[in-house]
Queue: 3 jobs
Job 1
Amino acid sequence: MALGRSRRAAVEFSFLSAIPVMVAASGFDLFKNFSALAAGEGKLLLIGLAASFFTALVAIKFLLSYVSRRDLTVFGVYRIALAALLLAVWG
């Protein structure tokens, strides 16, 4: 947004730039802990992957439509309040 792009473009860029990091981290964790998986857990892993993928698509679609209509102030306040709550509970 500091470069003059729209809020929607900034949100799309942040999601797209996070994909390689999440894929690499998940792949590394799976590679590191592959021996701990039991024989039948491969199906559960794939079901969990599919469920999280579709949930993420819904969340991204909602956030993009929200950002297209409103600014990020409410979202920022929500994130700060949630962080403060989590620090108070577990910090």
Job 2
Amino acid sequence: MTEGPEASEKLVEVDLGDLRPTQMTVGLSEVRLKRQEWRGRDADGKKHFLKKNPLPAVFGPKKRYYITDHHHLGRALREEKVKTVYAAVLSDFSHLQGDEFWVVMDNNRWVHAYDANGRRRQFVDIPKKLSKLTDDPYRSLAWEVRRLGDYPKDTTPYSEFLWADYFRRRISASLLTSDHADALEQACALARLKEARHLPDWSETA
């Protein structure tokens, strides 16, 4: 049974399979890379990595932990059959119920209820397991563009989803499927346009 964090605790060990997502999608390309990186570590390296990379989480209703970031890492570890991880507890909202909990989460920008088509959905539609998160190829595209240096990593919550939506509206799904290299080249060029200046950490010269 999941126990709640003590008042003085910042880090708790939790069952990975019990963690609840706060978003609907991931970019499976990023998940695959994180799986490869995990396999490249020895046993001691894996233990050290888990302790140094806790999943940020909120303690919510029914004594459940809701992770607010690092969904790709969580999904990768889940697929690698990791049983337990560390969670860095941001807040205790276990006294809240139902819609009130999600309203507070939304106000704190700790939930992203958008599907693989970039459409806003109800909070109840958010999967209850990391294994149920669906693939958003535009989220993968945004991640690839960032890796190439066309925009840096930003601390804005869900910043890469904002970039994904920007690309979704300008690059066709058929091109992304049929000619990924061309789609990536177009995305890198789009990332430097002034029309992207509203996005987190945009730079013409990135």
Job 3
Amino acid sequence: MKNYTLVFAREHKSTFDSIKDGSKRIETRAATTKYRDIKAGDILTMSCQGEKFEKKVKNVFHFKSLEDLFSKFEPNQIKPGVKSTEEMTKIYYSFPHYEEKIAKDGILAFELE
């Protein structure tokens, strides 16, 4: 079992809080080498503005595309309040270089306990 740290920017504090309170149980990241080795049983330390907590990874899913991700998970499972795949796609593509990263490496979904 390994421990990995996922850092959330200030503007994503609501996502951090949703993971903390358990209302968000799926966290996603572009499947870059930084996150590719995370496995079920590993511990993710969530960090935002000096606040930290830990969640255990129940399952890891690697998808080749957002379409594949959305065939398994509804957008509101990934980000509570988001109702459509179009809205979720816009959110992903608003992150720096995410469109290219997902096209190249795919996307990981971490199911949290």
